[in-house]
Amino acid sequence: MKAVCVRDVSFGYSEGLVLDNINFTIEEGDYIGIVGPNGSGKSTLLKLMLGIMKPQKGTIEIFGQNISSYKGWGKIGYVPQKAASFNTSFPATVEEVVGANLFSKIGLFKPIKKSDLDLVYKYLDIVGMREYSKRLIGNLSGGQQQKVFIARALVSSPEMIFLDEPTVGIDVKSQQEFFELLDRLNKELKITIAIVSHDIGVITQKVGTVACLGNKKIAIHENTADEHALKDMLRDLYGDNMRILLHEH
Description:
Layout: E1 2-13, E2 16-27, E3 31-35, H1 42-49, E4 57-62, E5 65-66, E6 76-79, H2 82-85, H3 94-99, H4 103-106, H5 114-126, H6 142-154, E7 160-164, H7 172-188, E8 192-197, H8 200-203, E9 209-214, E10 217-221, H9 227-238
Parallel strand pairs: 3-8, 3-9, 6-7, 7-8
Antiparallel strand pairs: 1-2, 1-4, 4-5, 9-10
Family: Belongs to the ABC transporter superfamily.
GO molecular function: ATP binding; ATP hydrolysis activity
Protein name: High-affinity zinc uptake system ATP-binding protein ZnuC
């Protein structure tokens, strides 16, 4: 089944179109990077796929249903940009941050049951943050915080996770650990992952499929191991003057 199907979608602001009649799909089980320079429409496309904004033209389907009538948002996890994801000065512990994503299930003012807490610990184990469960979120490094936000998304048992520039402001070692975690979630838990990033060189080395946005269009490359074909596609989209740096694994 297609996790996401974007058909003939256009969207613009007062200064003009950002996306012009784009088409692409995300299959269940995909690990896809949505990349492009600043201003290429990445954030706009993400908001459209999350139902935050509506296409001005065209349709979007989530798991086979039109997004306008889709009710299964519990299947969708979302990890926003680090800077926007949480007020890290708020005096909440790691387990409280993760458990907060269960409030829609258990009720806002109801105590968390042991079974729910076990679920929190299960996903903290998966992301390697169980030992930090009693720590304040603000006392963790940027990379550790992002792992906590991944656990927060996982605790609702999603089938797909969207991530928006999740490695901005995180050191190289933490980035590597973060991508290894995403790879495990995709391969072992069979979670469909879509990661939005401006860092084309890094993302193309990590994901299985690349969707490149530019000039109001989208181009899909399904074999990221073929660097020559990938570079050709990027130059076709962004022009010959763009310097493309593909990082080593």
